[in-house]
Amino acid sequence: MYLELDGQGPHYGQLVRALKAAILDGRLAAGARLPATRALADELGVSRNTVLAAYEQLRAEGYLDSRVGSGSYVAALETRRPPRRPPQRAEAQSRYIERARRVHVRGVARIHQGLRYNLQYGDPVTNPALSSAWGRELARAAAYTGLESPPAQGLPALREAVCDYLARRRGVRAQPDDVLIINGTQQAFALCTRVLLDEGDPVVIEQPHYFGARQAFAAHGARLVPVRTDREGLVCAELPQEAPKLIYVTPSHQFPGGTVLSLPRRLELLRYADAQGSWILEDDYDSEFRYDVHPLAALRELDGGERVIYVGTFSKALFGALRLGYMVLPPALREDFIIAKYLADFGSPAIEQMALAKFIAEGSFERHLRRATKTLKARRAAMLQGLRRYAGHRVDVEEGHAGMHLVAWLRGYTPERLDALIALARRYELGLYPIAPHYLQPPPRQGLLLGYAGLSAAELDTAMRLFGRCLDEMG
């Protein structure tokens, strides 16, 4: 029996108060049998006479009933727990959490969870057999992975597999020592803030951009400098005169606009970073999925690995529950990032790393990518056809030729009217996502981020028909 004595006064009085509290708050229910006096005395380290005296006091006050030959029992009392005070959120205990509370918008990407036609970006459902295949890989890996903590930099087998994969698919030449295994792209942002930034340091971000990166930088206290994008990607002519500490870009498939950073601008950006002493964070988040276009060389490959930190993730290519990604680091920063990773979590899970290393080395990963790319290409075509058929001239579509989403700009819509459209669509079980959260300032037009990775081609046709119906009803 657990009783906590308060240490105030004689043991007899402490025990009386502890038992009363247990009875009044319901831990000792009516009719419950109390321990024998000798057993409770031994448990609490007090004399038996102390327990006898406490029981007698509680009987006198009506808390206990005695039954000859049976012991002491809690009396049937009308007890009520005192009302609980509503939980109060503590004041921000650090500058970091004060900023994080301001910038963090919970669930931006998941506001329509559970809807039948949820056009959420970024959670691919392309291979129903992937779950069982991954389960088998995990079981195999568990059998031959050591039980000790993995190296903070990541298992050598996975770092080697990443290098081989990048050389084949992206033309990125790297050595295993250049690679750091991380828990998804979001950890890459966190590590960059710790290694590269102090409060107030300027960070260039694209406009528009991935809001998860913006939130990570802003919570750390960075000063965000948005730079416009157009059909050739980041407008390098508008980069600030003041040297930014970090430049965050998505050159292979600008998020969320869908453009590709042109080769002249890639070279211009690299010259700017070299002249200013800035670091470039190249987020290559979904370049595995390209349709009818040949990718340009990665910034890291053009740079030779001097100023560019290259980041990739397996969460988009496989499934969101797999929180594994990688950074390819410049030699000058390698040890600092490994230190930061070690201090963050000692290293990513070893069994998942080994399973993924085997999955890549045996060719299963690239077979999955070929199958997924074919499926996503068909879904993209279904969405484009549906938009042309059901939405027509009422939207302007940024088609893009990669990834898992499209951008649709709505003609003549205000922010209030867009909110009404999203609410109407929800009644039809259709989940629509505004593009505005990906802008630091309000966008020039109202638009939607339409994800097609989670629905079949037939479901996407239905979703676009419902979208057209909503547009009709909005007038």
TrEMBL record:
In the C-terminal section; belongs to the class-I pyridoxal-phosphate-dependent aminotransferase family. Keywords: DNA-binding, Pyridoxal phosphate, Transcription, Transcription regulation. One of its GO terms (molecular function) is DNA-binding transcription factor activity. It comes from Mizugakiibacter sediminis. Residues 9-77 form the HTH gntR-type domain. It holds the Pfam family GntR. This is Transcriptional regulator. The keyword Hydrolase does not apply. SMART domains: HTH_GNTR (SM00345).
